[in-house]
Amino acid sequence: MAGPPRAARNLNMSPPAVTRTISMLEDQLGVRLFVRTTRSVMLTDSGRRFLEDAKRILLDLEEAERAAVGSYAEPKGMLNITASVLFGRMFITPLLAEFLNQYPQLRARTLYVDRIVNLIDEGVDVGIRIGHLQDSSLMAVRCGSIRQIVFASPDYLEKEGEPETPKDLEAHTIINSTALCPSGHWDFHTQGKPQEIRVEPRVSMNTNDAVIEMALQGQGLARLLSYQVAPHVAAGSLRTVLTSFEPPPSPIHLVHQEGQMVSAKVRAFVDSAAKRLKQDAHLE
């Protein structure tokens, strides 16, 4: 433990002034903080606890100051964002373009991949997570929900008929997305209970874009997330089936790792993106 001379140098004070300050603090607290001998100065147990608490309080104060400054600072620097491929292209890219126009000192890098990205390991500031969150350490803002839907082109349904129950899928041509259903099991809810149907796809495809294109060509029934085919459903080029057997909706969250010490760039993007996504009819 540094004695008064060294502490005095660090604080730019005289040793007697440091000694008087410590004595006044001990008198105020009513406990001894140091054990003093002719050769050393050591913390007592009470002094050690007081030091740990004081450090924690100072860190909390510094964090509060940084958070307050971050609330008003101009977003700048590099903002790293991750999302699934289609979600990123359909929703994040348009709002990111507007966001960058608003903050000229900001740059952005996107990582659009159909897998869960570790924000810390891959240096990502903000991620979009679809489904129930497993990592409780993340700060999360809910911004919508999606459904798992079965769909086909009107031409296919006119030719082959519309399935009335999940069991009817056995008589239909199936296009399976291995990105969503690698096992070939499709989940449904029948009378409020989970039901899993094993499908035998005629074609399995590893990208959702390809699945959508195959369905648009009238090649069979497919299953994806509602937002992925929402524009085609709205246009009438695809139709949903088995809607009463859909599983419960899954939430969409904007997540980040920064806690209360959130930077201006992250705070601004999360606030802006959450507002936009909550207003999107395709994410209800």
Number of helices in the DSSP assignment? 8
The end-to-end distance, rounded to whole angstroms, is: 60 Å
| Rg measurement, Å | 29 Å
CATH architecture of the largest domain: 3-Layer(aba) Sandwich
Low-confidence runs of at least 5 consecutive residues: none
Mean pLDDT: 88
How much of the sequence lies in strands comes to 25-35%
Helix/strand/pairing category: alpha/beta
Question: Main sheet, how many strands, which sense, barrel?
Answer: 5 strands, mixed
Shape: elongated
The tally of domains stands at 3
- How many strand elements? 14
CATH superfamily of the largest domain: Periplasmic binding protein-like II
CATH class of the largest domain: Alpha Beta
- In which order are the strands of the major sheet placed? 4-3-5-14-6
**H-E order:** HHEEHEHEEEEHEEEEHEHEEH
Description of the structure:
With 284 residues, the protein is α/β, with parallel strands linked by helices. The protein has 3 domains: 4-72, Winged helix-like DNA-binding domain superfamily/Winged helix DNA-binding domain (Arc Repressor Mutant, subunit A, Orthogonal Bundle); 81-142 and 252-283, D-Maltodextrin-Binding Protein, domain 2, CATH 3.40.190.10; 148-245, Periplasmic binding protein-like II (D-Maltodextrin-Binding Protein, domain 2). 39% of the residues lie in helices and 25% in strands. It has 8 helices and 14 strands. Strands 4-3-5-14-6 form a 5-stranded mixed sheet, covered by helices on one side. Strands 11-8-12-7-13 form a 5-stranded mixed sheet. It has a two-stranded antiparallel sheet with strand order 1-2. Strand 1 (34-36) and strand 2 (41-43) form a beta hairpin. The mean pLDDT is 88.
